[in-house]
Q: What sequence folds into this?
């Protein structure tokens, strides 16, 4: 749609041009605001009807778009006096940029100055010529002229080249007034994104805390962790099973051996096995994953040896059932009902099938202690079991029992970070209540 | 004490019945209510309306990205959402870029697009075409890196579309580089792909994001709604029914919601009976917690 | 050599990706786009193929050793080979894709969709026998659950009351609870990622 | 409904009933259907990976002269050394390449979206109280939310004994968490039942009419 019509032929021709102009206007009005591809065709029609041009826009400012990979300018201005005021006849604004930037070409077309080889693609910089890089509806006071960075894409334009801008105010019937020219300005990419300072701070603080805490824990420093109600529940449940002389069932869940919840479950299993060895109660550990089974066997054997009952340990306490979700659960239900287990432990990674376990267990009248970090399973465990270790409590329980330096250090680092975050949030909320604008504006991420 | 014992064995017998009776009862109730096809009014939540209003505010020719990251096991809740969104896009001539980042999902996504085009053809006589009205990019492994890749340029992870047609030869895709050319991403998912869209899609590229998720996950995403990281949530079958009503094609989800009333009532009655029995037989919690 | 070099790769790549997030400049985007985002899907394809290979191996050993229920492993292998043959060959010989789509629509969809619908029965049976208000916490949970479950019930005048109560539960206490959990999960993911990059956590390397 | 669809629907319906038969008891039909879907979906992965990755991202890139795509392909094949015990250490290199990228990308963004954004969201909800539109209820709810967040965080705080003041704060925290779990419970029940409803809709509305239609 080239739009530039040569006026001054016969009257008939003028009429159809006016009609065409009005038509193109209606299409323009409905076209979307910011066309991603800079529309190089001149879209403002020549002034066909004597119409006093609307007032031009004032104090145009152009600067490189900050915090980006370059190839972008941000223009701001005050809208024309005739826009939503005065004669209110402003249809739109058009942004023009000089020098013109034509391309990409495979090789230079003709001798002339201004041919630039941009990584194998030829572009032509034409001084004194204007490109239209954007049209914006009325009552908008800013525009981002964003170019691509790939040298071969049609909307690419180079960094570190002085471009000047002007903004045309286009009247309802096509009359135009130009703003003052602003420039030259160079676009460039930044090496640090200022808006992400908060994120850098948070990552450095948390990383530092993590490293120091893990090193302290490895150095054997006594890091305090509060006693957990969950651990008392575990001990009480074992005690009750011994009174009733019925076996204890320990289910490590469906997780793979490297998942944190499964690792935490091994630590608690070793404590349960140690107590079971002391009280000489029977322990049953059906496993879903063969590697988890081997690790569980080693854990239980070691716990028996630590309790001085090495010879009481026999291999088939910990056995592999199957790798199929529902079949595994069905097999455990059978064991629960057959052996009338007094206490059932479900600690580790669980999915939707955990429901059937907890239901059969409560039917068999056994005490049930569960713990998982799968948030979607927690509601069902809470209402179906006697006690549930919720998410991080499972990690805390294993850190409390096992004192393993990495887990302990990480837990303490997370605790202190949460403390810092709570103070930060308190400060922000206070600023919000007292309406201290400059302080609450700090608590914003502009990425 | 005798009276307590007799009450105890009534409830004991009641709860000791074989679980298959419970299954049979639920199955029968659902089958009957599906046949009866009752219809209940569907209240529209703010979270669903904000997605509908946003889509309505788009002009024809705008682009949106529909990310269908689910597989057949959850199509009951999520397929009606996809169909309703596609219907709205085709009606308003909004161009749709579609991806399916779950390895069991692409075949189902292609089928969903086909039925949506067929329905649009039956309504308006025009059949939306690949490359003109919609583009289906298909599946690639490692969703996190695919979401980041599309943030830089769709062509990095997807040189071709699902039918192995090069992207640059699709008329709709020229001038479309990454999320800056797309008005919003609507992620319909049953997996943690939703978390990855929030963290790696909206978190890094600030693309406006709305989600349609299964009931299991829906409540976990309200914090993101408050911070504005997402601008709408369709929660499970209810979200699907709301969107079907908003788009004006009440279908499987709306019918399903009426049957849900029966299903939920059974569960609530079971919980209440169960607890009456529990308190009646005075089984104190053994640990006194 | 077997352990040191992978740790160096992880440390250098991980550190670059962390720093790259804060450097919007064009130069930092080159490696990010053309290596970090372009190559992994290719590796991912082979990694996923690994899962299929180990499934085949497990099924074959089950059949060879006549392990319990080995007959079903034959069904798995038949399903695997026909589907992949129809799919792969189908790409070059289009009429086969009809069979590929037929298998998907009439085998995968019905079975996967039905598999998880079993959970509705397990919830019903558990609701009847296991979901007890045995503690204060369980009571709060059940009361909130029942209110939320009745949010779309047609209760006449009561509908809007229950609806607004459920809406309040979702947007206030649930928002607070899930936001606190999110903060914990976020810190957990970041600490695990840091431990992997700094080589503190090496379990993925396995035993050599 | 034409003959072909009736046949397909019958196959789908029979397989659906095979899975439902598990409700009665674990039986050969259920085992058959389960093992069949495991095989078919594995075969489906092979085809999707071939059509969606091997051809566009490897084959066409190599044949288009971009030889450097050989490097990720080799790294991918090295991943298969995990099968052979003796060579499985080689698979650490592709794994290291992938893990390095994914963990590096995760650190800043998870911290930003799951931690900072949530804290700032709460702060901004208080700052927003001052614009005219907020009524009493919005203020009340914002206060309840911030109390809920702080008490829940204190519940997950392990460095200080839950006694006295901290104890009661943590108690309010666990109550908030329980209401949150109640909401999840309610929505999960809806999710599970809708899967069953859809299957019954298929059997009753699509399959049966087809047979007797």
A:
């Amino acid at each position: 749609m080239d739009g530039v019509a040569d006026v001054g032929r016969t009257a008939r021709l003028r009429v159809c041009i006016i009609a065409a102009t009005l038509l193109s206007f209606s299409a323009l009005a409905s076209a979307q605001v910011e066309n991603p591809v800079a529309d190089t065709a001149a879209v403002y029609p020549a002034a066909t009807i004597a119409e006093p041009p609307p007032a031009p826009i004032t104090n145009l400012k152009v600067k490189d778009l900050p915090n980006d990979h370059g190839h972008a300018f941000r223009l701001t201005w005050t809208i024309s006096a005739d826009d939503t005021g005065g004669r209110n006849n402003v249809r739109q604004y058009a942004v023009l940029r000089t020098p013109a930037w034509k391309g990409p070409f495979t090789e230079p077309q003709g001798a002339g100055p201004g041919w630039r080889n941009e990584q194998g693609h030829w572009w032509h910089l034409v001084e004194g010529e204007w490109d239209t890089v954007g049209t914006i509806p009325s009552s908008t006071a800013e525009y981002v002229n964003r170019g691509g960075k790939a040298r071969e894409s049609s909307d690419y334009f180079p960094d570190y080249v002085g471009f000047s801008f002007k903004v045309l105010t286009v009247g309802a019937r096509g009359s135009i007034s130009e703003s003052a020219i602003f420039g030259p300005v160079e676009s460039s990419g930044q090496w640090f994104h200022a808006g992400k300072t908060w994120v850098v701070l948070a990552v450095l603080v948390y990383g530092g805390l993590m490293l120091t805490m893990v090193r302290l824990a490895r150095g054997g420093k006594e890091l305090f962790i509060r006693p957990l109600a969950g651990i008392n529940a575990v001990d009480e449940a074992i005690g009750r099973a011994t009174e009733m002389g019925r076996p204890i069932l320990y289910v490590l869940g469906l997780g793979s051996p490297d998942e944190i919840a499964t690792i935490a479950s091994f630590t608690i299993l070793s404590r349960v096995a140690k107590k079971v060895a002391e009280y000489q109660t029977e322990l049953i550990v059906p496993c879903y994953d063969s590697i988890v089974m081997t690790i569980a066997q080693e854990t239980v054997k070691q716990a028996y040896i630590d309790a001085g009952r090495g010879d009481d340990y026999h291999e088939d306490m910990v056995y592999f059932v199957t790798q199929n979700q529902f079949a595994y659960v069905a097999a455990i239900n059978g064991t629960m009902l057959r052996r009338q287990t007094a206490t059932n432990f479900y600690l580790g990674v669980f999915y939707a099938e955990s429901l059937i376990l907890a239901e059969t267990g409560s039917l068999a009248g056994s005490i049930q202690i569960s713990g998982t970090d799968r948030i979607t399973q927690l509601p069902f465990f809470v209402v179906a079991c006697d006690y549930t270790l919720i998410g991080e409590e499972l990690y805390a329980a294993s850190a409390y029992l096992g004192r393993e330096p990495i887990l302990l250090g990480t837990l303490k680092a997370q605790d202190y970070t949460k403390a810092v975050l709570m103070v930060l949030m308190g400060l922000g909320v206070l600023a919000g209540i007292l309406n201290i604008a400059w302080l609450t504006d700090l608590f914003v991420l502009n990425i | 004490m005798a009276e307590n014992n007799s009450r105890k064995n009534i409830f004991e017998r009641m709860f000791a019945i074989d679980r298959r009776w419970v299954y049979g009862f639920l199955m029968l109730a659902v089958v009957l209510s599906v046949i009866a096809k009752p219809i209940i009014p569907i209240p529209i939540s703010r979270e669903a309306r904000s997605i509908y209003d946003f889509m309505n505010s788009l002009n024809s020719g705008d682009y949106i990205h529909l990310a269908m990251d689910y597989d057949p096991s959850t199509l009951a809740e999520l397929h009606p959402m996809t169909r309703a969104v596609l219907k709205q896009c085709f009606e308003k001539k909004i161009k749709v870029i579609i991806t399916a980042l779950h390895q069991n999902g692409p075949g189902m996504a292609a089928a969903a697009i086909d039925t949506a085009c067929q329905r649009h053809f039956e309504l308006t006589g025009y059949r939306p075409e690949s490359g003109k009205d919609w583009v289906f990019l298909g599946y690639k492994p490692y969703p996190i890196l695919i979401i980041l890749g599309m943030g830089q340029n769709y062509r990095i992870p997807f040189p071709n579309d699902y039918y192995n047609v090069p992207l640059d030869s699709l008329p709709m895709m020229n001038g479309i580089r990454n999320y800056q050319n797309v008005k919003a991403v609507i992620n319909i998912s049953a997996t943690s792909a939703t978390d990855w869209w929030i963290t790696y899609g909206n978190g890094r590229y600030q693309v406006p994001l709305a989600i349609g998720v299964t009931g299991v996950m829906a409540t976990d995403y309200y914090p993101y709604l408050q911070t504005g990281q997402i601008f709408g949530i369709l929660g499970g079958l209810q979200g699907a029914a709301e969107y079907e009503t908003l788009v004006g094609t009440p279908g499987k989800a709306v019918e399903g919601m009426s049957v849900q009333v029966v299903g939920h009532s059974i569960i609530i009655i079971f919980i209440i009976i169960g607890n009456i029995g529990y308190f009646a037989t005075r089984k104190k919690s053994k640990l006194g917690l | 050599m077997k352990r040191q070099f992978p740790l160096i790769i992880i440390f250098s790549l991980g550190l670059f990706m962390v720093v790259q997030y804060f450097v919007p400049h064009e130069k930092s985007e080159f490696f990010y786009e053309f290596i970090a985002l372009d190559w992994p899907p290719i590796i991912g394809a082979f990694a996923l193929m690994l899962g299929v290979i180990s499934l085949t191996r497990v099924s074959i050993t089950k059949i060879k050793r006549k392990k319990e229920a080995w007959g079903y492993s034959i069904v798995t292998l038949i399903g695997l080979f026909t589907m992949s043959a129809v799919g792969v060959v189908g790409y070059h010989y289009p009429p086969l894709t009809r069979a590929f789509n037929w298998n998907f629509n009439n085998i995968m969809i019905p079975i996967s969709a039905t598999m998880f619908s079993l959970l509705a029965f397990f919830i019903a049976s558990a609701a009847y026998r296991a979901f007890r208000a045995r503690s204060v916490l369980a009571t709060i949970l059940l009361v909130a659950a029942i209110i939320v479950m009745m949010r779309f019930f047609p209760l006449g005048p009561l509908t809007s009351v229950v609806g607004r109560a459920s809406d309040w539960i979702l947007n206030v206490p649930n928002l607070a609870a899930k936001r606190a959990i999110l903060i914990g999960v976020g810190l957990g993911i970041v600490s695990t990622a840091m431990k992997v990059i700094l080589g503190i956590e090496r379990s993925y390397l396995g035993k050599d | 409904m034409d003959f072909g669809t009736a046949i397909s629907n019958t196959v789908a319906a029979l397989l659906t009933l095979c899975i439902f038969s598990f409700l009665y008891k674990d039986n050969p039909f259920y085992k058959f259907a389960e093992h069949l879907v495991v095989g078919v979906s594995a075969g489906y992965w092979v085809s999707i990976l071939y059509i969606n990755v091997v051809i566009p991202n490897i084959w066409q890139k190599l044949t288009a002269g971009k030889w450097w795509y050989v490097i990720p392909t080799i790294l991918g094949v090295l991943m298969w050394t995990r099968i052979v015990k003796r060579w499985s250490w080689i698979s650490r290199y592709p794994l290291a390449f992938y893990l390095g990228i994914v963990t590096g990308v995760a650190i800043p963004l998870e911290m930003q979206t799951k931690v900072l954004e949530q804290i700032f969201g709460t702060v901004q909800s208080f700052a927003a109280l001052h614009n005219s539109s907020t009524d009493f209820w919005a203020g009340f709810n914002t206060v309840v939310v911030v109390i809920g967040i702080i008490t829940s965080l204190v519940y997950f705080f392990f460095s200080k004994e839950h006694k006295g003041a901290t104890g009661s704060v943590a108690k309010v925290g666990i109550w908030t968490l329980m209401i949150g779990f109640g909401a999840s419970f309610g929505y999960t029940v809806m999710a599970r039942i809708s899967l069953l409803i859809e299957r019954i809709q298929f059997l009753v509305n699509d399959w049966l009419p087809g047979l007797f239609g």
